[in-house]
Amino acid sequence: NESELIENNPLLYNYLNEHRDHLLGRKSMHIRKEPFYSTFGVGEYTFSIHKVFFNAMGSTKQSFSVGSTQENEFLGDKLLIPHNNINCISTDSLEEAHFVCGILNSQWVADFVSSRIGKSKYPWSTKMMSRIPVPKFDDSDVNHQEISKASLVIHELAKNGQEYSDNEVELNSLVSKILD
Q1: How many angstroms separate the Cα of 119 from the Cα of each of 34, 59, 111, 127?
Q2: Nearest alpha-carbon partner for 59 in 132, 99, 113, 131
Q3: DSSP string, 133-149
């Protein structure tokens, strides 16, 4: 609470207070009920190393991607943390992230989502994402491993500017095996 922050961390409070107007200018309805410096939507999941990132707003076209850290010449490896309309799904491993990403980028999911959304501004909302039947990743399941590997290959090809449409056909076949 604010009085504890003033007592225990006066320099931090002074810094935040210098930016009070800017912080109060945020549009979230939650801010009116909490201290002016509150943040929302931040938890342990925010700091997970391996995540699947996606733009939640504006496009029904899937564009899920796996990320973890970004090399910075001045700061070294920095953890990727989404902001604003970029959302993420935190995972326990790189393999799980690629499995989830592979499922979400599949034609099966494209068909599933397009049959359920109208003209929503947020086609990839939390509500929609919760309806997609992504199985829990099982690293001992060969089908799960293959989906993960296929996603990793597609990411590498895309990163190097190479064609990957044949790999997408393979990924769609693998996803269909477990979701049909």
Answers
A1: 33, 10, 15, 15
A2: 113
A3: -PPPP-TT-HHHHHHHH
* Radius of gyration in angstroms for the set of CA atoms belonging to the chain, rounded to a whole number: 20
Q: How far apart are CA 148 and CA 112, in angstroms?
A: 20
Dist. CA 96–CA 82, nearest whole Å? 19
pLDDT computed for residue 118 by the predictor: 65
Q: What is the mean pLDDT of residues 11-17?
A: 95
Give the neighbor-by-neighbor strand order of the sheet with 65-67.
65-67, 50-55, 86-91
Looking at the whole model, is its pTM more than 0.85?
Answer: no
Q: What type of residue is 77?
A: D
In Å, how far from its chain's centre is CA 169?
Answer: 24
